[in-house]
């Protein structure tokens, strides 16, 4: 009789710990998704420059980066050479400029659907 009661208690514990509601599973999945991506950025004015030269990011060579909410991200979908002479006086390796961007942050990178560096007067 003692063994039957032990088996019944263990069976109940096993069944209770293995059950999760769909809400618990979806909350856990959405939390892990937020670690790699964020909401879309639409027509936002941000800092843009060379990630290595101006933002102090790790890497080799000169690569386009944006700074959004104080965090720097390398850009996919546009290159530093698409925006003039990077090493000119007002080039992106020598100064931080403003740009109007649309895209999304995913896996620690900014995926640009549009990136337009603003003129110095804007």
How does this structure look, described?
This protein is α+β, with helices and mostly antiparallel strands. It folds into two domains: 2-33, no CATH class; 38-117, Beta Barrel (OB fold (Dihydrolipoamide Acetyltransferase, E2P)). It has helices at 2-18, 22-34; strands spanning 37-50, 64-68, 71-76, 97-106, 109-117. The protein has a five-stranded mixed beta barrel. A hairpin with a 2-residue loop joins strand 4 and strand 5 (109-117). The longest helix is centred in the N-terminal third of the chain and has 17 residues, at 2-18.
Tell the overall outline: elongated
Rounded to the nearest angstrom, the radius of gyration is 25 Å
CATH class of the largest domain: Mainly Beta
Largest sheet: 5 strands, mixed, barrel
What is the SS-derived class? Answer: alpha+beta
Order of helices and strands: HHEEEEE
What is the total number of structural domains?
A: 2
CATH architecture tag of the largest domain:
Beta Barrel
Question: Uncertain segments of ≥5 residues (pLDDT<50)?
Answer: 13-17, 19-36
Give the proportion of residues in helices.
10-25%
| N- to C-terminal distance | 84 Å
Beta-strand residue fraction: 35-45%
Write a concise keyword list for the protein shown above.
OB fold (Dihydrolipoamide Acetyltransferase, E2P), 36% strand, 5-stranded mixed barrel, alpha+beta, elongated, 122 residues, single chain
Q: What would you say about this model in short?
A:
With 122 residues, the chain is of the alpha+beta class.
């Amino acid at each position: 009789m003692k063994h039957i009661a032990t088996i019944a208690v263990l069976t109940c514990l096993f069944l209770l710990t293995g059950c999760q509601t769909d809400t618990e599973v979806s909350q856990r999945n959405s939390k892990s998704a937020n670690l790699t991506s964020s909401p879309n950025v639409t027509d936002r004015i941000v800092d843009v420059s060379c990630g290595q030269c101006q933002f102090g990011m790790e890497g080799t060579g000169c690569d386009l980066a944006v700074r959004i909410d104080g965090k720097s991200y390398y850009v996919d979908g546009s290159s530093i050479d698409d925006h003039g002479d990077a090493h000119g006086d007002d080039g992106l390796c020598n100064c931080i400029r403003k740009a109007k961007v649309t895209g999304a942050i995913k896996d620690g990178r900014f995926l640009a659907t549009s990136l337009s560096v603003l003129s110095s007067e804007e």
